[in-house]
Amino acid sequence: MDMGTAPDLKADGAGRRVAIVAASFNESITAEMVAGARRALLVAGVAESDVHEIRVPGAFEIAPTIRQVLAYGPEVDAIVALGAVIRGETPHFDVLSHAVSHSLQSLANEINVPLTFGVLTTDSVEQATKRADSTGLDKGGEAARAALAQVEAYERIRERGETRLRGFRVP
After folding, report:
1. Which phi and psi angles does 65 have, rounded to 5°?
2. Alpha helices in 24-116 (DSSP H)
3. For 24-63, what is each residue's pLDDT tens digit?
4. Contact at 8 Å (CB) between 75 and 17?
């Protein structure tokens, strides 16, 4: 089965500050995703001291923790949300995967900091492992590269003109 490949996102990370908010649940998978994200950021030029890793118990806790990061620091230019929700024998997977994706999407729509979604929702540990592998599909690295590309996109939009409030709060 072809899972497709992400576009080749190349963005300059020099001077950027990035938070990686990652779930600890399914640790072997999320650790690999964090490693891929961290590696992608460093290759793009983000300084090691500007990569802030925050671990949370599970995927459900990612969005509220991102709110805390934005409220209390560290100050960041982008946020990478990482986790793995793997289908089990109960409907918990459906409830949790929907809640996590909805909360992160809602949050992304409210804030003026790029937030990328790197939460795997898979049917098996094998699928998750394949997607997390930083030498393979590298979904953690992909989410990090997307975050840097979003920072550049936001900057291009902001450079085009004055701030106009059209139903959104803009800092």
Report:
1. -70, -35
2. 27-43, 62-72, 92-110
3. 999 999 999 999 999 999 999 999 999 999 999 999 999 9
4. yes
18-159: CATH topology: Rossmann fold (3.40.50)
Of 66 and 160, the one with more pLDDT = 66
Tell me whether the omega of the peptide bond preceding residue 74 falls within 30 degrees of 0, making it cis. yes
Q: Which of the residues 52, 92, 98, 102 is marked catalytic? A: 92
Cα separation, 57 vs 95, in Å, equals 17
For 152, half-sphere exposure in the C-beta direction (CA atoms, 13 angstrom radius) is 12
Domain limits of the chain?
18-159
Q: Which two tokens stand for residue 107?
A: 């949050």
Q: 37: part of which helix (H) or strand (E)?
A: helix 27-43
Asked if pLDDT for residue 65 goes beyond 90, the answer is: yes
Specify whether 92 is catalytic. yes
The pTM of this model reads 0.89
Sheet strands side by side (includes 18-23): 51-56, 18-23, 78-86, 115-122
Evaluate whether 41 touches 76 at the Cβ level (below 8 Å): no
